[in-house]
Amino acid sequence: MHIPDGILPAAVCFGGYATTGAITWYSLRKINQKDDPREGIPKASLLTAAFFVASWIHIPIPPTSVHLVLNGLLGVVLGYYAFPAILIGLFFQAVMFQHGGLTTLGVNATMMGMPALLAYYLFRLRNVLGRKGDRLGRKDDRLGDRKDRPYQALTGIFGFLAGAGGLGIAALIAVALLITTIPTHLDAEAERASIYALTLAHVPLMVIEGAFTALVVLFLQRVSPELLGD
Amino acid sequence: MEYQQPQQVKPTNPDDPVLSVSDLSFSYPDKDDVLRSLILEVGSGERVGLIGPNGAGKTTLFLLVCGVLKPDAGEIRLFEQPVVPGKFRPDIGMVFQNPDDQLFCPSVRDDVAFGPSNMGLPRAEVEARVREALSIAGALELADRPPHHLSGGEKRMVSIAGVLAMRPRLVVYDEPSASLDIHSRRRLIRFLQASQETILIASHDLELILEVCDRVVLIDEGRIVANGDPTEIMDDVELMEAHGLERPHSLAPHVEPHHERPQVAPHF
Amino acid sequence: MKLELDEHGHLDSLLHQWEPKYKLVGLMGLILAFSFVQDPRLLPAMLAITLALYALSRLPLSFLIARLRYPGFFLLIVAILLPFLSGSTVLLRVGPLALRQEGCLDLLLIVSKFVSILTLSLILFGTAPFLDIIKAMRSLGLPLVLADMTLLTYRYIYEIGDDLERMKTAMGLRGFHARYLGGRVLRVLASLAGSVLVRSYERSERVYKAMVLRGYGQPTRPSEEPRSRFRDLAWLFAFLLLAAGFIAAEIVLRQGQG
């Protein structure tokens, strides 16, 4: 999903930097509005590093294996810090592994970061739909009892949607960008058709990301709900 | 068993108190009564060892004394001034149990410079302090290395340097010898024995406490249970075992005595 | 995966000696100019300059090849179709497939730009300690939140990476190997990822306390500007001139065609 250097025209790269700049500015503003913005920095930074590392976990798809993108999960856990986190994560990936380019850093950040923010908003809906009130202030309440099952199911579903959606939207943007900018001299019809086809090809991956995200979210719900904002 | 507040042991210099804790109480959201009306005094130049079972409240006490946590009740005075939670006080330094939690800069030099920089010192002064602190900790040659290339013992000494660079008058050490190899541990003991500041050490390493400290405080379930001479307290097998500890090996009666311990003059 | 970026950062070359702040601006300027190139006639100049700079940097060739291999492979997978899909002038017919001229040129363009830009990036990050580059970015205006986050992230990537390795080893020793895609495998791997996240989160709380205790959040003095020697500025000027030259050439050539 990381678009490398050399493919996209300069105008698109600059456009990417512009959108990333704007979203970063917006995110930083939201962050600085908090009581103590610096308090969130160690948490966001270490979680960025953790996500960076977690994306190295191989998911076996015989005969090969894939690395997950996990931008949906990142959005759920980090909220407004998600976009700077993705920007920084991509920067490190570009510099350390040459995975994704420096000229395309802006494009890649917007492509993966914007869905992360959307995943965050989506997951917040869960709190709107689920009863959260009773859960606060209870000690030693980690492993849920039967009453918590609906809430857990809700958490799982939203986790799945966040993960699948995060990847899906990013894939759509990546595919659309590549097809429209690489000179293939296809007509508009064919371009649209190929965009749909290639995005559809990502559906199995979306399902895996969604499932994985749901499982991790449920894990966090049991072990450390503060990470989900509970 | 009825709790009895032990007799207060007067600090070395009653006219120069370093730390004064009175009626300190604290609970975590998920754990009540971690500290219960705790009373403690430490005088200038003292080396106090804090012992007790896990969960006794040692780390919590340190965090309260440093102003990181806010007490539910009670008062803490540091150098005669009340501790204001959240306020930066470079006159106290805390060395954390895990040096990786404390070495958060990408290079040793930057990390040791962190404290002095935040004190608003001019750049030349910061550099001088970095050199000084690293020398005292014996880690000057590590200055330009990234922390993840260091061994456990090296990380320990660098984390101490990072605290010393602020020139604190009181340093609290939380389990300083945890995970250290024999050589590094010996180095740490020698370092602590030579240190000039007032120090407070929380440790399970009872032999280290015996070698370094001139007073021991036994904490259990949020209260001070004993406060006095290290040998006296740690030789009391019943007392130690009642509070989840053991008598250190070097104090056990030996057919052929083979332990040499530095003589510490009693001061009370 | 090799995490070290600046293993050759201690070498001595003209590029190593260039002050990071100016090096960053100069090289990025040239990189952006190269990304602007669309006309194949500029490719030889672009590649020649790139290789000349790499030679000047005294970085080993093995370094370049190793770093280009993995991303280059993926780029080729994406771009290899171009000669067959793009354009109308047919050069060669191989059965039902037709090799087209425009497509070949497009492929050449993409590959050349890719190689050049990547090589310049490797020069930028390979000839100075990573930390210095971050400081240079900070002095160029990178917001404090981003700078702090970048440094902290960089510091703990290795620790957390080690954590993961240890956990994977422990899992392997207890008989778990992720060989197939199934519910149990996903659950276990999700727990692994979750554990990494939770541990990092808990560590971050301790790190925050340690930072606050040493004064994090206090207003700090602005750090000193790096000394700028004439040589650094001269190189910067040369690079920016070169970048401008490429952009100008590209515009002129485009107008000539249009």
Describe this structure in words.
Chain A has 230 residues and is mainly alpha-helical. Chain A has a single domain (10-228), classed as Orthogonal Bundle (Arp2/3 complex 21 kDa subunit ARPC3), CATH 1.10.1760.20. Chain A has eight helices and two strands; from the N terminus they run ααββαααααα. A two-stranded antiparallel ribbon of chain A has the order 1-2. In chain A, α3 (71-78) packs across α4 (82-97), α3 crosses α6 and α6 runs antiparallel to α7. The radius of gyration of chain A is 19 Å and the shape is globular. The two termini of chain A are 32 Å apart. In chain B, 30% of the residues lie in helices and 24% in strands. Chain B has helices at 58-65, 99-102, 108-118, 123-136, 152-164, 182-194, 206-212, 230-234, 237-242, and strands spanning 17-28, 31-43, 47-51, 73-78, 81-82, 92-95, 170-174, 198-202, 215-220, 223-228. In chain B, the strands form two sheets. In chain B, strands 6-7-8-3-9-10 form a six-stranded mixed β-sheet, with helices on both faces. A four-stranded antiparallel β-sheet of chain B has the order 2-1-4-5, covered by helices on one side. The two termini of chain B are 28 Å apart. Chain C is built from ten helices and two strands. In chain C, a hairpin with a 2-residue loop joins β1 (90-94) and β2. In chain C, α2 packs across α7 (130-139), α2 (20-36) packs parallel to α10 and α7 (130-139) packs antiparallel against α8 (144-173). The two termini of chain C are 47 Å apart. The mean pLDDT of chain C is 85. Classes of the chains: A mainly alpha (230), B alpha/beta (268), C mainly alpha (258). The B-C interface holds B 63, 66, 68, 86, 88, 90, 93-94, 96, 98, 100-107, 110, 114-115, 117-120, 122-123, 146-148, 162-163, 166 and C 130-131, 151-152, 154-156, 158-159, 162, 203, 206-207, 209-221, 223-224.
